[in-house]
Amino acid sequence: MSTRHCVLPARAESVSAARRFVRDVAEDWRGRPERFATLLENLGIVVSELVTNALVHAYEAVLPGRTCDESDLISLCLVHEPCDTGDGEAGIERVLFAVADPSAASPVAPTPARAADGLWGLDESGRGMYLVEALADDWGWRRFRAPGAAEPSGKVVWALFELAC
User: Fold this and answer.
1) How confident is the model at residue 97 (pLDDT cuts 50, 70, 90)?
2) Assign residue 39 a region: left if phi > 0, alpha if psi is -120 to 50, beta otherwise?
3) Which residues pair with 93 in a beta bridge?
4) Who contacts 140 (Cβ-Cβ below 8 Å, separation ≥6)?
5) What phi and psi values does residue 50 have, to the nearest 5 degrees?
6) pLDDT more than 70, % of the chain
7) What is the largest CA-CA distance in the chain?
8) Residues 6 or more apart in contact with residue 42 via CB below 8 angstroms
9) Given this model, what pLDDT does residue 64 score?
10) For an engineered disulfide with 83, which of 4, 96, 98, 165 has Cβ 3.0 to 4.6 Å away?
11) How does DSSP classify residue 122?
12) What pLDDT score was predicted for residue 108?
């Protein structure tokens, strides 16, 4: 298993920097590039969405009316679990991407009711998580507390991609 971390400033340019981070890390473990072509396209879209959400929703919610400075950061983690077919059975290769931000507010999750009412397309936010839902094999989120904090001080949103070996 390979895990890589990256910390980026809370600025718009960090969306493209996050995509570059994923692309550069993926070069280390691609092996057979044709296997990863679609995965990397889908992962790039999901990375862009999750980092954009952290910038737009987390930092605006935590820092309303304030311009982000150099101490405002977004933490990224990319985990690659290569195929393990030690017992001769078909295996699964996994790629997990996670973004940590300082807001404990939940992401706007896609629901059948929101899609069915026909109005979700008019919402100012929430549509991007439909992309995450459609492109990733699984996704989720979890609040966390900073050491010594009594209340949640942020969250991690993650997306999992799986490839048959």
Assistant:
1) very high
2) alpha
3) 163
4) 157, 158
5) -70, -40
6) 76
7) 57
8) 135, 136, 161
9) 56
10) 165
11) G
12) 76
pTM higher than 0.90: no
CA proximity to 128, closest of 15, 50, 54: 50
- Give the torsion through C-alpha atoms of 112, 114, 117, 121, to 10 deg: -120
Helix (H) or strand (E) holding 120: none
DSSP structural state of residue 140: E
161 contacts 95 by C-beta, under 8 angstroms: yes
CA gap 62, 84 in Å, rounded: 42
Please give the pLDDT value at position 157: 96
pLDDT tens by residue, 101-127: 888 888 877 666 666 665 555 556 667
The encoded tokens of residue 3 equal: 């895990």
Question: Average per-residue pLDDT in the chain?
Answer: 81
- CA 108 to chain CA centroid, Å, is 14
The secondary structure of residue 69, as a DSSP letter, is -
At which residue do the structure tokens 């209340």 appear? 151
